[in-house]
Amino acid sequence: MSTGQNLLVVFIVRGCKMALPVSDLKEIAENLEVIRDPSEGFVAGSVALRGRTYPLIDINKRLGLGESDFDSNKVFLLVDSLRDVCALPVDRVAGVSEAASEIYTVPGFAFKEPDAISSFMMQGEDIVSIMDIKALMKGIL
Q1: 2, part of any domain
Q2: Which range marks the domain in which residue 57 is found?
């Protein structure tokens, strides 16, 4: 039985399986209205949920995967960042999984933001990139 410390929420971004520790996740929300911000940074706008506004981070842009299409991204992960809760748009949530017994580190040259992906694991035949949410948010908020 799992203690919860090694549980990951697995999600899909641009066809890639990614994950982050369940302990970093505050909530999963769908169909939120996106208020766009025309700035060029990684903060693409905001979303509102139950009377509170959360910064919306363009995860695709941050990882060097192009810009997010917010019209088709209807699932948002509300995550605990360095200073506040923020929203990450994802294509879909695949589920919750226990971390594999073998976790591999990522070479620094593999991603535009190498610290944002801390490691990866195999899930069947799929590679799942495990995100470090604190590193992903560094310098954004």
Answers
A1: no
A2: 7-137
Q: How far apart are CA 59 and CA 44, in angstroms?
A: 10
Pairing of the two strands 92-98 and 104-105? unpaired
Could you tell me if residue 38 is inside a domain? yes
| 87 in any annotated domain | yes
Mean pLDDT of the chain: 84
**pLDDT tens for residues 92-124?**
999 999 987 778 876 654 555 557 888 889 888
Q: Are 27 and 36 in contact (CB under 8 A)?
A: no
> What are residue 90's DSSP bridge partners?
75
Q: Which helix (H) or strand (E) holds 60?
A: helix 59-62
**Structural domain count, the chain:** 1
Alpha carbons 100 and 121: distance in angstroms, whole number: 6
Nearest to 18 by CA among 91, 114, 112: 91
Which two structure tokens, joined as six digits, stand for 109?
């040259």
pTM (two decimals): 0.85
Domain of 61, CATH number, reads: 2.40.50.180
